[in-house]
Design a protein that fits this description.
This protein has 351 residues and is α/β, with parallel strands linked by helices. The protein is 38% helix and 16% strand. The protein has a 7-stranded mixed β-sheet with strand order 2-8-7-6-5-3-4, sandwiched between helices. It is globular.
């Protein structure tokens, strides 16, 4: 079985130069955010388990909700844990971000998976969730899909009727390339949680700062989980996030322009006779189907050529002939990396 962290360790050990593997943005954080962070480093006391009042208020205004519907979390993965830890089963659509399964396995929460396919736009043909919670992730990691309104209408209605907690992981919401958008806040169901973080939009994954917006009772449960585990979050990182939220629109425009250009380049330069793919609606990933090649074997072969890429089986065991390419390098590295990916696939039989 493929082990994500062992693979990352091997890439780091070999000091691989071209990194299409991890979803770690290469863009520099905005200097205004860094200045706010540095200027608050003397704030080392305890804070509220819910989060800094000023930050909660900024997020509430951003999303048009009440402040008691907001809680700050140490990244999105912790938010997932806080939301599912007292559920019995969580329903996912494959391919899915590996962090969902890893968190559920750690907490002893069951997983119910429905498959999706490229020919259906990476939406399940029929989705009948069995879990008492469901996770939606759009723009999707790894496919980049943003669903139709028709699909989300049905999903939300089904979840509402059956009393499921709807968790909407929207960490890529600010990186969308067309008119289509999705947010759970367009529906405001009875039981819901929107997850967002500073990692992708603001290129600060190491800050480990995210938030949940949800119904009041769900948010209370997250606050309780924080009190029982980490107690509180650093005040200095939250002050940086206040500045980040205030310049959000400027940052969205900046990063979306960059990632859209990279997606365009990848779509034009990946050899379509070797790889099948659907152009992503958002995010910064290409989800590639290989021509009868095992994705994990292919990834390890690329590692020998100084290129890292993520094997598809990490996103669901049925996707062994897929790769996720993270477009988080630019210029000559991007060009050389895609050229190496093409050449490796083209010459696979002789490798």
């Amino acid at each position: 079985m493929f082990n994500t962290y062992e693979y990352f360790d091997e890439l780091n050990k070999r000091n691989v130069k071209i990194r299409f593997d991890a979803g770690q943005p290469d863009l520099s954080p905005n200097k205004e955010i860094l200045e706010a962070l540095i200027g608050s480093l003397d704030k080392m006391g305890y804070g509220s388990a819910r989060g800094l009042d000023e930050l909660c208020e900024e997020i509430a205004q951003l999303h048009g909700v009440k402040r008691e519907q907001v809680v700050i979390t140490p990244g999105s993965k912790f938010a997932v844990a806080a939301l599912i830890h007292n559920t019995k089963c969580v329903s996912l659509i494959a391919p899915y971000w590996p962090g969902y399964k890893g968190t559920a396995d750690l907490l002893g929460v069951g997983i119910d998976v429905s498959k999706s396919y490229m020919e259906d736009g990476w939406l399940p043909r029929v989705w009948t969730p069995k879990g008492d919670s469901i996770i939606l992730n759009y723009p999707n990691n790894p496919t980049g899909t943003i669903p139709s309104r028709e699909f989300t209408d049905k999903v939300i209605e089904e979840a509402e009727v059956n009393g499921r907690l709807i968790i909407s992981d929207e960490v890529y919401r600010d990186i969308a390339f067309g008119e289509r958008r999705f947010s759970i806040l367009d529906y405001m169901p009875k039981r819901f949680a929107l997850i967002h973080s500073c990692s992708k939009t603001f290129s600060m994954p190491g800050l480990r700062l995210g938030y949940v917006v949800g119904d009041v009772e769900t948010v209370k449960k997250v606050v309780k989980f924080i009190r029982a585990t980490i107690t509180t979050l650093p005040i200095f990182s939250q002050r940086a996030a206040v500045k980040a939220i205030r310049i959000l629109e400027k940052e969205k425009d900046r990063i979306t322009k960059v990632y859209k250009q990279r997606v365009q380049y990848a779509c034009e330069n990946l050899d379509s006779s070797l790889f099948k793919f659907k152009r992503p609606d958002g995010g910064f990933y290409m989800w590639l189907k290989l021509p009868n090649i095992n994705g994990t074997e292919f990834a390890y072969k690329l590692m020998e050529k100084d290129v890292g890429i993520f094997p598809g089986e990490a996103f669901g065991e049925e996707y062994v002939d897929y790769l996720r390419m993270s477009l988080v390098c630019d210029g000559e590295l991007l060009e050389r990396g895609i050229r190496t990916v093409n050449e490796t696939a083209r010459n696979w039989g002789s490798n």
